């Protein structure tokens, strides 16, 4: 009987030691808000102006952007739901455009509501289904490799999904 009592008490004692030995004070990782400062001589452009300037782009003949232009927009749709594949949609007050990226699960870095500043130099405007899109001229189907994507698309501030207002735009 004493052996059975010792066998039953041993797990209880070990559990009590395990629970009291846990350290529950965790160090919080630093949360640094992403900020991007435009260069002093930066020339900005709206999506509508971008569409008009590169209206001659086609599916078979994309136009590479050689000017040093910046676009300030907000991610209006991402690939979180699984219905959008390797694309994010950007929108400003003048219109919207899709940006092709050769990466899945982009929403973890660029969720809907994230304000972004796009360095357009080196990207291209192509057309698919009569809609203009931004991509990389050397990428497969004009998709931008993710490392280059992060060099062109800069996050600015925290994502705020309440600022996404889906509108219908006409070309």
Rg, alpha carbons: 25 Å
- Shape descriptor: elongated
Amount of helix: 10-25%
Which segments are poorly predicted (pLDDT under 50) over 5 or more consecutive residues?
Answer: none
* Largest β sheet strand count, sense and barrel closure: 10 strands, mixed
Average pLDDT, to the nearest integer?
87
Helical run tally:
3
Architecture blueprint of SSEs:
Blueprint: H1 2-20, E1 43-45, H2 47-53, E2 63-64, E3 69-77, E4 87-92, E5 95-102, E6 115-119, E7 124-128, E8 131-135, E9 144-145, H3 146-152, E10 153-155
Parallel strand pairs: 1-3, 5-8, 5-9
Antiparallel strand pairs: 2-7, 3-4, 3-6, 4-5, 6-10, 7-8
Structural overview:
The protein is of the alpha/beta class and 171 residues long. It is built from three helices and ten strands. Strands 1, 2, 3, 4, 5, 6, 7, 8, 9 and 10 form a ten-stranded mixed β-sheet that branches. Strand 4 and strand 5 (95-102) form a beta hairpin. The longest helix has 19 residues, at 2-20. The protein starts with a helix and ends in a 16-residue tail after the last strand.
């Amino acid at each position: 009987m004493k052996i059975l009592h010792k066998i039953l008490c041993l797990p209880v004692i070990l559990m009590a030691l395990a629970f009291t030995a846990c350290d529950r004070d965790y160090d919080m990782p630093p949360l640094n808000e992403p900020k991007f400062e435009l260069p002093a001589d930066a020339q900005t452009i709206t999506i509508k102006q971008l569409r008009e300037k590169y209206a001659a782009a086609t599916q078979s003949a994309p136009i590479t952007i050689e000017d040093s232009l910046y676009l300030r927009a907000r991610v209006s749709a991402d690939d979180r739901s699984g219905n959008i594949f390797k694309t994010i949609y950007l929108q400003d007050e003048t219109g919207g455009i899709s940006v092709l990226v050769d990466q899945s699960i982009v929403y973890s870095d660029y969720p809907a509501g994230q304000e972004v500043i796009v360095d357009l130099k080196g990207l291209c405007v192509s057309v698919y289904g009569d809609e203009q899109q931004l991509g990389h001229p050397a990428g497969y189907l004009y998709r931008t490799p993710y490392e280059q994507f992060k060099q062109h698309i800069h996050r600015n501030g925290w994502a705020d999904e309440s600022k996404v207002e889906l509108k219908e735009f006409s070309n």
